[in-house]
Design brief:
single chain; mainly alpha; 69% helix
Amino acid sequence: MPPLSLTRFIRWQAPMSFAADDATRAAAQQQASTLLSRIEQAKNRGEDYRLADIALLRRTCQAGGGVTVDARTVGGRDAIYKAAVDAAVRRCREPSSVDEADLADSAPLQFVAGVAQDLQIADERAVSMACNWVAGHCRARIVEAYTAAKKGDDVLCATALAQLSSLLQGMPVLEAGSSQVALIADEFKGWADAETLQRLHAMAKQLVEPQQQQLVSSMLGSSS
């Protein structure tokens, strides 16, 4: 696994935990453990993880001075974390679909970093998993934009590119030279036609925020 870059490490900061005395920490630890059990049991019943429970776990751990919980399995722990990442991604793409309260009143990246801390996922692993999942969502938006551009649907193309830009701005875990970005670019080289890519590059320059231009250009491959 590649080392966590300084740039991403600076961004990857969970919200500060509140100062708490021993009694407060003990009460928070008990409540957090109970919440985790409820989250795990719901999944065992075939239900989806409730974002409200994950957000409450985040608030409880933070209020308790940074207490953490022990998931029963690594797979279960990672699945809870993925649910948090997916919610953060939705908040970036379509803010109306996920309230700020659903992310424990934190910015998307801070919420994700906080949940990783609560679940005792090491920064390197947490960032690596987030990168892979965010890259998957980015790929989906680019495919949507490309397909729309190919059909001449500029409105749908613009919507997909705007969502891509918002996602990269709200979850800045990818870097232009990363393996995830290279995989997206390599895939498009295999089947995308040059004319449509040229149109996509032109629209991206108009719709993607300046700080994400290089990253999106890397995903699409260099324009001709």
